[in-house]
Specification:
Helix content is 0%, strand content 35%. It is globular, with a radius of gyration of 17 Å.
Length: 192
């Protein structure tokens, strides 16, 4: 173990298939995984000091982040990613998964500092789970062509602005009825 390692950057490490040993690096503050990694799954669990995460791994398909209370920002460009689950990142204020064209499942839970989220052009997204996001005030979903429901939006108490456009499969917007804080809703090019 490397008890004082605070920054780790892996780049062009084609032979590394199992990245789970990163969880043993408890003093990491910055982690960058870039290009040509062989790993298809990454579970980062309980990294108490991690503040910044940069991911541009070509083959990564499943990303799970749990219990990163200090995590403030994630940048990602993951062309093969199918599933992202982020929970317990209470300080996360910046999240941009818009460079993930194959994404099918996105789950965000316990991101207490996230105030705005814009999700653009995810034609493959079928499952969007948003829970315990008490500060989320602005949500924009564009070109999520396979998304069918917004049922969990009623669980976003601070949501004041919502824009959903080009979601032709969306057939459930009943959650809008119970949103007391909602000030502005734009629903564009939805099914009739």
């Amino acid at each position: 173990s490397l008890p004082k390692l605070y920054s780790l950057s892996l780049r062009d490490n084609v032979g590394i298939e199992n990245l789970n040993r990163i969880n043993e690096l408890s003093s990491l503050v910055e982690l960058s995984l870039r290009e040509n990694l062989s790993a298809t799954e990454l579970l980062l669990d309980q990294q108490p000091q991690l503040k910044t995460l940069r991911l541009t791994a070509n083959k990564l398909e499943v990303l799970t982040l749990r219990g990163h209370a200090a995590l403030e920002a994630i940048s990602m460009a993951l062309p093969s990613i199918r599933s992202i689950a982020i929970s317990g990142a209470r300080s996360l204020g910046v999240l941009n998964p818009n460079s993930c064209p194959a994404l099918q499942t996105l789950s965000l839970d316990g991101l207490h500092a996230l105030t705005a989220f814009e999700f653009i052009s995810h034609r493959t997204l079928t499952d969007l789970t948003l829970t315990d996001l008490p500060a989320l005030a602005r949500l924009r979903l564009r070109r999520c062509e396979k998304l069918t429901t917004l049922s969990q939006l009623g669980e976003l108490p601070a949501l004041t602005h919502l824009r959903v456009d080009n979601a032709p499969e969306l057939n459930d917007v009943d959650a809008l009825k119970g949103m007391a804080a909602l000030e502005s809703a734009e629903l564009i090019s939805l099914p009739k």
